[in-house]
Specification:
6 strands, 2 domains, 11 helices, Nuclear Transport Factor 2, Chain: A, 6-stranded mixed beta sheet
Length: 324
C-alpha cells in the first residue's frame, strides 16, 4: 500500500516547487528543496500511516526543509525594497553582499492547482507568486512566512498549520496577525485592487509592444508603455531608478556599455507576469549571448516596475533560448 501510494509522488512536484519558491525566492533552491523533500519522504515512508493526505504530509516535509535552508543562508531580496532610488548615479556594478530574488518561469506553474477556493485562502496562486508578493514575504521571519503560506495561500486551517510547524494554534494565529501587518506595509498600495490575470489580451498586447520597441530600438515607443513613476531594478546591481526619464536614460547607457551590435528578444512569462529574454550578438560572432531577463509588473495598463535580471545563469531556466 505504501509503495503504491508513493508511486504518485511525482505528481506533486510542480506545486511543491512553487511553494518552496515562495519560501526561498529561488527556483534553483526550490528544486533542491523538493529533491530533499522526496528523499526524506522516502526514507520515512514507513511512518506515513494515512492519517493525513500524502499531499499534506509532503507539504509539511517541504516546509520544514525550507525552514532549515533559510536558517543556513540569506533571504532573497529585490532592490526597490532595500534603499531609496538612485538620484543621478549610473550603476556601479553588481553587489555580492545581497542574496537576490530570482524570477520563476511560467512553464513551471502550468500544473500548479489554484487554492483560492480553499476554506482559509486569502490569495490566489497567481498573486502569491508575483514578484511583489514574493519580495514582500521575504521580510517575514521564516516561521511567519511558513504560517502565512500554509494558511493564507494553501488554505490550511490554523490547526493544520500548527501541526505542520510543531507549534500551537495560538502561536499560528499570532504569527498570521504579525505577518499580515508586515505585508500591508510592504506590498504596493494598489496591489490588491490592481490584480489582473497575466494572460489577458491587454497584457499580451502590452508585452508585444514592449518587445517591438526593443526590436526596433524605439525608446519613444518604450516611454509610452511606462507609468510616470515607473521603477527599474537590475539585480545584482544594487542601484534602482524611478521615473520614465531615468529608466530610459539607464537603458540607453546600459546598452551602450556592451559589445553587442545586434539584439534578439524572446517574449515569455515569469511569476504570472509578462517577461522578455534579451540576447545580444557581438560583431563577427554567430552566437546569441544572454544579457538580461525583463519581468514587467503592470498596473492600470502600463508598466509600473521593470525588473531587469542581469544574472546570465538564470537563462538556464528557460528552454526556448536561441543559440545561433
Amino acid at each position: 500500500m505504501i509503495a503504491a501510494t508513493f508511486d504518485h509522488i511525482e505528481l506533486y512536484r510542480p506545486e511543491l516547487k512553487a511553494h518552496c519558491y515562495r519560501m526561498l525566492g529561488s527556483p534553483f533552491d526550490a528544486e533542491d528543496a523538493v529533491q530533499e523533500t522526496f528523499l526524506r519522504a522516502w526514507r520515512s515512508s514507513e511512518k506515513f500511516e494515512g492519517r493525513t493526505t500524502l499531499r499534506g504530509w509532503l507539504y509539511r516535509i517541504a516546509t520544514n526543509v525550507c525552514l532549515t535552508m533559510l536558517s543556513r543562508g540569506k533571504t532573497k531580496r529585490l532592490t526597490p525594497y532595500l534603499s531609496s532610488p538612485a538620484a543621478t548615479d549610473f550603476p556601479r556594478g553588481p553587489s555580492r553582499e545581497v542574496s537576490w530574488l530570482e524570477p520563476y518561469p511560467q512553464t513551471f506553474l502550468t500544473e500548479v492547482p489554484d487554492t483560492a477556493s480553499a476554506p482559509h485562502a486569502r490569495y490566489e496562486q497567481k498573486e502569491a507568486t508575483e514578484l511583489a508578493f514574493v519580495a514582500a514575504i521575504a521580510y517575514l521571519p521564516p516561521k511567519q512566512r511558513a504560517a502565512l503560506l500554509l494558511h493564507d495561500v494553501l488554505g490550511w486551517s490554523a490547526q493544520e498549520a500548527a501541526r505542520a510547524l510543531e507549534t500551537s494554534t495560538a502561536s499560528i494565529n499570532s504569527a498570521l496577525q504579525r505577518a499580515r501587518e508586515t505585508l500591508r506595509k510592504k506590498l504596493p498600495e494598489d496591489y490588491t485592487a490592481a490584480r489582473r490575470p497575466a494572460t489577458t489580451q491587454a497584457q499580451s498586447d502590452l508585452l508585444a509592444q514592449y518587445v517591438k520597441a526593443w526590436d526596433s530600438h524605439d525608446m519613444r515607443a518604450l516611454v509610452k508603455l511606462l507609468k510616470d513613476d515607473a521603477i527599474l531594478s537590475m539585480p545584482p546591481i544594487p542601484q534602482w531608478y524611478q521615473g520614465r526619464d531615468q529608466v530610459i536614460e539607464i537603458f540607453e547607457w546600459g546598452t551602450a556599455q556592451t559589445d553587442f551590435v545586434q539584439w534578439r528578444t524572446v517574449p515569455t512569462y515569469a511569476n504570472y507576469e509578462p517577461a522578455m529574454l534579451l540576447y545580444g550578438q557581438e560583431h563577427g560572432s554567430p552566437n546569441w549571448i544572454p544579457h538580461a531577463i525583463h519581468v514587467l509588473e503592470v498596473r492600470d495598463g502600463q508598466i509600473a516596475t521593470l525588473h531587469n535580471f542581469m544574472d546570465r545563469g538564470l537563462f538556464r531556466l528557460w528552454s526556448n533560448a536561441p543559440t545561433r
